[in-house]
Amino acid sequence: LVVVTWANYHMLDFTLNWAGHLEQLGLTNFMIGAMDQEILEALVSRGYHAFSMNMNSLTTKDFGWGSPTFHKMGRQKITLCKEFLEMGFDILLTDVDTVYLRDPLPFIAQYPTADLLVSSDLLGTTLDVGEEGLEKRDGTANIGIMYFRHGEATIAFTNQWKKMIDARPDYWDQNAFNDLFKKGKGFQLTNQNLFKAYNGRLNMGIFSVSQWCSGHTYFVQQMWKKMKVQPYVIHATFQFAGTEGKRHRFREAKLWLDSPKYYNPPGGVLTYEPYIPPQLLKAAGTSYNGSLKSARSHFELVHMQLRQLRNALGIAMALGRHLV
């Protein structure tokens, strides 16, 4: 099994963060597809196993979600997956805006008959508290994290997937993936929560959303805490500030591998721990019915936090420190 991601020079810091966390887990079986010469040289100079994808014609800047360049990048993702499968490798293909917190290989090894495992944008889990495994249902797949077992069925799937989006330049690769795996599917779980997909040709499963986390289930819901499980990976989805927002979320969760000097700026830093009164949190949990009265508790909760932030910022400015 090879763990693979790909990136251009714009995402170099994300690539180093991705690789650094895998190294912390003791993993060495990972490779990085370099989409331009700049990132290839940067990775090779640091000793990483990187290979050229011969895509200098795209861009070394941000792809821009939904742009024509973004869709071209998606096609290369499928080609990358297909090439590893044809060489006889099982592959765990992940977007570069992910962070691994646990070694995923032992989990995947529990499913030797699985042809395809994929993460999901589901916002609720079908598993019980403390339960680890695959979701007990299908759902909208997020192709930011995919495991493929090499074989005729998965190669045929990736070939058909590529044909579908080549025929329509604006066809999002994720939508095409969902449309394809659901073809001819009669949903019926096995004892390992696998189901038949792609006209019955694939054994497929959905990674648990409390452990193979989206940005919503990890950062917003913190579902893993409620479910009393430890996450394997976080994908920085469900945020709307682009690359900067993803970087900030990882930093805020202490999942960004900055150099030590980043945390020791001139003047030092100031931190504070927000206090949220339980009664305000409980009141804000009531339903909003469109009236000002029903919205009041929400505003009170927000204002409570803003006042603390304002005070902390004022103290930091007076002391000449950076508020973090």
Protein model, in words:
The chain is α/β, with parallel strands linked by helices and 324 residues long. Helix content is 39%, strand content 16%. α3 runs antiparallel to α5 and α10 packs across α11.
Give the mean pLDDT. 90
Silhouette: globular
One letter per element, helices H and strands E, the order comes to EHEHEHEEHEEHHEEEHHEHEHHE
Distance linking N and C termini: 39 Å
Strand content: 15-25%
Estimated radius of gyration: 22 Å
Could you estimate the helical fraction of the residues in percent? 25-40%
Weakly predicted, low-confidence segments: none
- DSSP strand tally: 13
User: Given the helix and strand composition, which structural class is it?
Assistant: alpha/beta
Largest sheet: 8 strands, mixed
Write out the strand line-up for the largest beta sheet, numbering strands in chain order: 3-2-1-4-7-6-9-8
Helical stretch count?
11
Task: List the keywords.
single chain, 324 residues, alpha/beta, eight-stranded mixed beta sheet, three-stranded mixed beta sheet, 13 strands, globular
Overview in brief:
This protein is 39% helix and 16% strand. The chain is α/β, with parallel strands linked by helices. It has an 8-stranded mixed beta sheet with strand order 3-2-1-4-7-6-9-8, sandwiched between helices. Strands 5-11-10 form a 3-stranded mixed beta sheet. It has a two-stranded parallel sheet with strand order 12-13.
